[in-house]
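Lab meeting minutes (informal)
Scribe: AK
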Amino acid sequence: MYNFSAPFANPAGSPIRELFKYLSEPGMISFAGGYPATDLFDAKGLGQSAEEAFKDSSVCLQYGPTDGLPALKNEIVRLMTQRGVTPSLSEFLVTTGSQQGFDLLLRVLLEPGDTVIVEEPAYPATLQALKLQRATIKSVGIDADGLDVAVLERMLEELPDTQRPKLLYTVPTFANPTGATLSKERRVRLLELAVRHQFFIVEDDPYGDLRFSGAAIPSILSLVDGVPGAKSWVIHFSSLSKIVAPGLRVGWTIGPPEVIHRCIIAKQTADLCSAPWTQAIATKYLESEKLPEHLGHIRTVYRAKCRTLCEELRRQVGDVIEFHEPDGGMFVWARLLDGVNAVDLLKRAIEQKVIFVPGVAFYAAEADHSTLRFSFAAPSVSEITEGVQRFSLALSR
């Protein structure tokens, strides 16, 4: 009846959000959504910041600059400096969550059919955005040290010029869904490949501050000065969603000024500007210096939750599942043994009042049906223990 555009003729929604209908069922324990724990939000601190912000209601309630409130941009520069990078104001913009930043970037850079490389498995919203942009998606596998750069190098050498990638998307630190972290050596090699083959590295870094064990690894963006020419080929996303509150919808993009300028123009047609009200709250919160202490608390809690999940998986189902225990983030990626299909298992798990995300959601094409993702951030420690017990019952049935 209606003549929709090609990407939206038969669109597929988020496979993870399709599971949210089960969250309203009484007693359901969820390992599914990548939601931070609501009881860890610094509601008091954010409330105080909101009161402070509204003292200048003319800023909160009026339109703001498309690239972000100047005061917030200054606070983000200060935060990024603590992470080893000091961008100039022309090198970044504030977005309505980092997902908007990625959407704007695709609008600016990609034509239908352009090649994009993603790590496999990959964040589903990224795959969804690329498919709607009609990109040609090629995948490179990962291991415990993240993206397999050696495989990537061979792929790049074999691709014809007509399929040279425009960009490569990666979550190098505590990846979603695998929890894997790209080693420093691989990060440097990735930069060298980007310079040689002239493609953008899109570094999505929402989880980097959530390290609760092991030594920190510098972001890809912070390593560009060590590789001549690399700074021109890195675009970095981050946000406050996982470390403060996703409801603020405050993210940012850092990249070459020529790219950022075009993203700002694209954003003008999307929403004019991100909400000045929540930008002002975020500004006051960052100015208050509450974030470092708050992060320490989050890391302590997530460490306990992750260890509980991994210990219970080993104890209760260790003979039928394999997984890698991460050093931070929010996720544990697992593979079922003996040919068990995670989609079929989910049906049994729902009957036992526990849900997870089958791995098929994280593949661009041919999927490993024995894989699945657990998110340990939202449930309590006691719920994690009970949830694994229910998972074990689902497996036995």
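Next up, CB showed the second protein from the same session:
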Amino acid sequence: MRLFAEECDTSNLSPFPGVALPGERLNHDEFMRRVLESSAVPQNVIVHYQDAGERYLGKVRAIDPEVRALSMASFEDGGLEAVFKAMLQSGDYDHVVVKGFRFFLLEHIRFDSDPEAGHGSLSRHLALDDRVAELWLLFKDLLLEINPRLATDGAGEQVSVMALV
């Protein structure tokens, strides 16, 4: 219940200028939707991201609920933290959308990294097995769909997509 409360009905991403009022409770998805709407991101880009997200969620929801539950330990107990830290190493964070995304990433690193009270501690008791790999591969596919440049290094050379997960 606590993990749900801190991801889906929470004020832990507020305040953020133009997106969330002080103390406002909202879903993390709603926070990012508002961040996107707060700038001049072209509608076709927003639609592309929404469509990619819907396809991803459809595939995830088709996976056995037990496997999805087990995967929370790998995502919340260091997995997403590593991905988010890598994301913070690249890019220019001057655009309002990217500032909002950066805030989202930094806060999630903070939520997940506390060894006693972080989100990882709430799911660490779940026994992981290889079935969760499918969820990580779907996540990798989503990242590549919304940003194909992730599959190349700075010189345009292909990198191992397995390095992304």
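CB comment: The mean pLDDT is 80.
No objections, moving on.
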